[in-house]
Amino acid sequence: MAERLSLTLPPTMAAFTASSRILPAASRARVSLAYSPSSSSASLSSLKCLGSTPLVSRLFLNQKRSPVVRVVSERGLSAVATPKCAASDPDQLRSARADIKELLKTNFCHPILIRLGWHDAGTYNKNIQEWPQKGGANGSLRFEVELKHAANAGLVNALKLLQPLKDKYSGVTYADLFQLASATAIEEAGGPKIPMKYGRVDATGPTECPEEGRLPDAGPPSPADHLRDVFYRMGLNDKEIVALSGAHTLGRSRPERSGWGKPETKYTKDGPGAPGGQSWTVQWLKFDNSYFKDIKERRDEDLLVLPTDAVLFEDASFKEYAEKYAEDQETFFKDYAEAHAKLSNLGAKFDPPEGIVINDGPSESAPEKFVAAKYSSGKRELSDSMKQKIRAEYEAIGGSPDKPLPTNYFLNIIIVIAVLAVLSSLFGN
């Protein structure tokens, strides 16, 4: 373990040495199909829980711990936080998302961030009712006991990339941060917009981590049966299994870590990031449907095909969806976005219960639709040409459907006419 931690690579290089897809640490290690923020760090119990984990303490908690946890508000003021509030702050979530986008531009760490989110959520067991024992998206992957699982080899580098953001945004839970990073990475790589919600509560200690063995193997004896055993346990179906497999369009496998793939290929020898590994697709930082096309054709020896990849075109039920996705990227994107959102919510406890939806900015009400009759009188319906003429005249004097006239224009007309009538009468006499 100590040898694993003696990392001296800069962030960019470190990210890429770990940005293999969802691969095992050894040839029999566990792997996710396409796997490659948790109670607020303002929560005292969560902070204590981190401190009890030697690995995370060494890597991420270099600062001195204080018995009082403070949260910096948007106004720059500091207030004492209490453990009872576990929900993430919407404004901090938006800011964290913007920072993740910048991180992706400089580190090209899309695959490993996707893998982190998937591996945190992918331990869910629908047959267990208690939280957090049922696993799922609860931020438990940050603890050493789960980080040491074979399927999570190299994910320590993903945590190292995100910890500065967690320190900066103490009002964002680890569980939310992991899922935010994963969804943002998909979108920034050219993939679909994921209908995400946030407000996940964090698991609080290593004793709440799931046992090893809940993630898929890379090369099981019966790939189709194995995939169904694992993903049916999560409550997912065949269509979702195949759609989620499409995330393998991103990333690389490194044999020294997973036991699978070539040391390098013509597509990976020059990076970006640390060179090497074997990718599933030619453009392994672009999210599209090329994974299905390349697996189907299998014409390029420099592209990786795992047993769990090949079976998508061998099993009758899987093949129906794989063929469709190879031909129709729009359908793949739609199904993938739905499946990713479902996976990211598995096992999560939300505060508030309905979750938090973040947008790019404050929502604005739509302007009132123009109705010509509203600016006219009488019961007779106006023709379309008359409506257009009235609207043009109305807008010409500064009015619009969502902006009233600065003064009562029609009243002013009446007053002017009255004044002119009086003057005409005087001059006429």
Automatic annotation (TrEMBL):
Subcellular localization: Plastid, Chloroplast
Chain residue ranges for the region called Disordered: 205-226, 247-275
Top-rank taxon: Eukaryota
InterPro entries noted in UniProt: Ccp1-like, Haem_peroxidase, Haem_peroxidase_sf, Peroxidase_I, Peroxidases_heam-ligand_BS
PANTHER family: L-ASCORBATE PEROXIDASE S, CHLOROPLASTIC_MITOCHONDRIAL (PTHR31356:SF1), THYLAKOID LUMENAL 29 KDA PROTEIN, CHLOROPLASTIC-RELATED (PTHR31356)
Plant heme peroxidase family profile domain mapped to chain residues: 172-357
Entry function: Plays a key role in hydrogen peroxide removal.
Cofactors required: heme b
Record's GO cellular component terms: chloroplast
Organism: Carpinus fangiana
UniProt record similarity statement: Belongs to the peroxidase family. Ascorbate peroxidase subfamily.
Segments traversing the membrane: 409-428
Protein name: L-ascorbate peroxidase
